[in-house]
UniProtKB/TrEMBL annotation:
<dbReference type="InterPro" id="IPR036388">
    <property type="entry name" value="WH-like_DNA-bd_sf"/>
</dbReference>
<dbReference type="Pfam" id="PF07702">
    <property type="entry name" value="UTRA"/>
</dbReference>
<keyword id="KW-0804">Transcription</keyword>
<keyword id="KW-0805">Transcription regulation</keyword>
<protein>
    <submittedName>
        <fullName>GntR family transcriptional regulator</fullName>
    </submittedName>
</protein>
<keyword id="KW-0238">DNA-binding</keyword>
<dbReference type="InterPro" id="IPR028978">
    <property type="entry name" value="Chorismate_lyase_/UTRA_dom_sf"/>
</dbReference>
<feature type="domain" description="HTH gntR-type">
    <location>
        <begin position="18"/>
        <end position="86"/>
    </location>
</feature>
<dbReference type="InterPro" id="IPR036390">
    <property type="entry name" value="WH_DNA-bd_sf"/>
</dbReference>
<dbReference type="InterPro" id="IPR050679">
    <property type="entry name" value="Bact_HTH_transcr_reg"/>
</dbReference>
<dbReference type="InterPro" id="IPR000524">
    <property type="entry name" value="Tscrpt_reg_HTH_GntR"/>
</dbReference>
<dbReference type="Pfam" id="PF00392">
    <property type="entry name" value="GntR"/>
</dbReference>
<dbReference type="InterPro" id="IPR011663">
    <property type="entry name" value="UTRA"/>
</dbReference>
Length: 247
């Protein structure tokens, strides 16, 4: 790996004029993209990289900081800097954000940006099969693992299903389970997006960063729609997979 980093850094330096930290940032990014640095692998320390490439530690720190901000690297207090591990989410199994992250040994949490009760909008009424004037519970949450914001979620639930918004402390699906209302199936659609200025600010990303938009309608066994969620996931942290079979 050290030989690769040295050769790639020299290639970057020869290819264009730019500050040294940008050359190192591109070098490390290429190493990740080409599999020279693999998910979960530790990077050499700042001092080691500085000595290897004849750079100052400030230059190395700036390059690493940029890649941490992009979600390609993660820093763990007292342990060092590691290549970020992408989260693989299956489209063939109905799971929650909390389920997905706990299965990977991560500690998910939510910051509530908004929550309350209000009258259903026409779009929400159509998605939830509700009559005009019905009351719904709304949540707007920032979903986080460790120190990284992974997604923004806007969720609407019929108040006839969930009477009090405060019942959800972190996981909506855990609350459903406590109420005996665990969802049985869901319909989802996905498309690529670019984060707007407000979304990027909340996610601590540059405006225009790539993301994935997922719209989900979730059903109980009896066919009732209990959830309408629009999620905005950061594109550099997730891989979505689905198993396909012939008939």
């Amino acid at each position: 790996m050290e030989t690769y980093l040295v050769n790639e850094f020299h290639r970057q330096t020869a290819a264009r004029r730019a500050p040294a930290y940008q050359h190192l940032r591109r070098t490390l990014q290429h190493a990740i993209e080409n599999g020279e640095l693999t998910p979960g692998q530790a990077l050499p320390g700042e001092r080691e990289l500085a000595k290897l490439l004849d750079l100052s530690r400030v230059t190395v720190r700036n390059a690493i900081s940029g890649l941490v901000g992009d979600g390609l690297l993660v820093q763990r207090q007292g342990a060092g800097t590691f290549v970020a591990e992408r989260i693989v989410k299956s489209f063939s199994k109905l799971t929650s954000f909390t389920d997905d992250l706990r299965a990977r040994g991560l500690d998910p949490r939510s910051t509530f940006l908004e929550r309350g009760v209000g009258e259903v909008t026409p779009d929400e009424a159509m998605a939830l099969n509700l009559s005009p004037g019905a009351q719904v519970v709304r949540y707007y949450r920032l979903r986080i693992a460790g120190d990284m914001a992974l997604a923004l979620e806007r969720t609407v639930v019929p108040q006839s299903v969930l009477a009090d918004p405060s019942l959800v402390e972190n996981s909506l699906y855990e609350t459903f389970s406590k109420l005996g209302l665990r969802p049985a199936r869901a319909l989802q659609r996905l498309r690529a997006i670019a984060f707007d200025a407000e979304q990027a600010r909340l996610m601590n990303l540059p405006e225009g960063s790539p993301g994935l938009f997922i719209e989900r309608r979730t059903f109980l066994e009896d066919g009732r729609v209990v959830e309408y969620t629009r999620s905005f996931y950061r594109g550099d942290a997730y891989d979505f997979v689905a198993e396909l079979q012939t008939e």
